[in-house]
Amino acid sequence: MKNTLPSFFVSCGEVSGDLYAADLITELRNDSSEIWGMMGPRGVTAGGAAVWSYEELKLMGFTEIVPAIPRVLKLRNSIVREVMSRNPDAVVVVDSPDFHFSLVGKLRAAGYKGLTVFLATPSVWAWRSGRTKLLRDYFDLCFPLFSFEHDFLIKREVNSRWTAHPLAVPLAGYSPPPELAARYGGGRVIALMPGSRRYDIKNHLPQLIETAKLLKSEQFIPVFSVAPGLSEPLRAELAERAAGFERWDGDGCALMAVSEAAVGVSGTVSVEAMLLRRFMVVIYNGRGLSWLLARLLVRIPYISIPNYLTDEPIYPELLKDDANPERITRELHAYLDDPAKKAKADRLMDAAQNAMGTTKAAPFWARSILDMLPQKQAGYR
């Protein structure tokens, strides 16, 4: 084992990945000589050095990725050269599986011998299960976000470890900023969550704007969440298109915490809503070839994770043409206006919370990585 503290390369490609990377960096920074890689503002604030910005990889949708392939391959090759040159003790990749499988495969082929870790593993239980072999062959250690994912991976001989979801403890007993609570105290706020990626905003903002008009006519206060990690061009576009409605530029969890319910694009936000015990109408308005390919490849009954954590679904999911303003508001009223339905949904949210774990995830990740490093450096595997 080296006498110096270990160094880490950390890579993420989107807002939620940057959040998890930042949690890990916070835990590792006192036990490392250097943490660098591709990350966003949270990772940098936590102590990482961003050699590349995660903005270079914020892609979504099959058809959106295809035109970017030459640029993404150039990015991958640049990272491979830098990793091989600096030879960190461990490579930790977070989410963004298509890019990160390719990156780590290229690193292995180039002769990288350090520890490789996948944090927030892909949904191989839902689709493209063949990638389970890549997790087994390319990575020394995997950290899924949910217990049922961990069970799936363990049964397939992936070195998976799990203790809790990283948001479970931070959102337990969460309180919104006092200024936000004061601004909307007593008002019937509905949080509108259009996402943080161009694909999300392009395909969902029109429906959310029309939904906001309906809600406003019914004396609700619709408020658009402007994700903190949103690029400046997208931030300006959202502000222009949602002009005339309230907007919140801070943490989306804060907005949901002062809301009666939420409407959000399928993703991490539905998990956050569930942990905050807020009802959500989940929407996904995929279009064109991206939608067709997704429907052909993904064979699961639900698109939001909370609906997998209980015996029956918690949140209504409105896909494609069903994600229209009238249907969205109808689903909100079904929860808000029917005490029996509200009580049932609240009970299901409580049950789902219990499946998320009760300990802090990031210290567990850091300890597991640091414990495995000596084995790897001594020729483990």
Which secondary structure elements does this structure contain, and how are they paired or packed?
Layout: E1 7-12, H1 15-28, E2 34-39, H2 41-46, E3 49-53, H3 62-65, H4 69-86, E4 90-94, H5 97-110, E5 115-119, H6 131-138, E6 141-143, H7 147-155, H8 178-184, E7 189-193, H9 198-217, E8 221-225, H10 232-241, E9 246-248, H11 252-257, E10 261-265, H12 268-275, E11 279-284, H13 288-297, E12 317-319, H14 325-336, H15 339-354, H16 361-377
Parallel strand pairs: 1-2, 1-4, 2-3, 4-5, 5-6, 7-8, 7-10, 8-9, 10-11, 11-12
Helix pairs in contact: 1-16, 4-5, 9-14
Please characterize this protein's 3D structure.
Helices cover 47% and strands 15% of the residues. The chain has helices spanning 15-28, 41-46, 62-65, 69-86, 97-110, 131-138, 147-155, 178-184, 198-217, 232-241, 252-257, 268-275, 288-297, 325-336, 339-354, 361-377; strands at residues 7-12, 34-39, 49-53, 90-94, 115-119, 141-143, 189-193, 221-225, 246-248, 261-265, 279-284, 317-319. A six-stranded parallel sheet has the order 3-2-1-4-5-6, sandwiched between helices. Strands 9-8-7-10-11-12 form a six-stranded parallel sheet, with helices on both faces. The radius of gyration is 21 Å and the shape is globular. The model has no long low-confidence stretch (mean pLDDT 90).
Structure summary:
The chain has 381 residues and is α/β, with parallel strands linked by helices. The protein contains 16 helices and 12 strands. α12 links the parallel β10 (261-265) and β11.
